Amino acid sequence: MSEITITHVEPPYPFEAYAHVVEPLTEEDGGGYLITFPDLPGCMSDGETETEAVLNARDAFSAWMSARAHIGKPIPKPTRHGESAEPVRLMQRLPRSLHANLVARAKAEGTSLNTLVTMLLAEGLGKREHRA
């Protein structure tokens, strides 16, 4: 069996631009959570927790984008956010205690506050969509 080296490709749209669905896995399937991207066929990941599934999905997303470019196929545009996939700025007032907790958690997870808040919002939306 031969090994293929695939060069990392910077995706034309950020991870956050693509809709994703986080679903619990049955115990028969090993438990934990599965994350899929409706706009990116075959791009998926999992994790023991929802947070871990989303973190692992970032790696899967990057690998999927690079592999897609490697085989010469176009990268689909995100469909949920219209033609512009540029991130938008959200300004939100928070109680100081909540902000302090978010800062501490971001530091503990080794990520930025912005990334943590985006991940938590995406997880919450995924849960809510799954129940609907």
TrEMBL record:
Domain (HicB-like antitoxin of toxin-antitoxin system): residue spans on this chain: 27-80
Domain of life: Bacteria
Recorded coiled-coil stretches: none
SUPFAM superfamilies: Ribbon-helix-helix (SSF47598), TTHA1013/TTHA0281-like (SSF143100)
Name this protein carries in UniProt: HicB-like domain-containing protein
Origin species: Candidatus Nitrotoga arctica
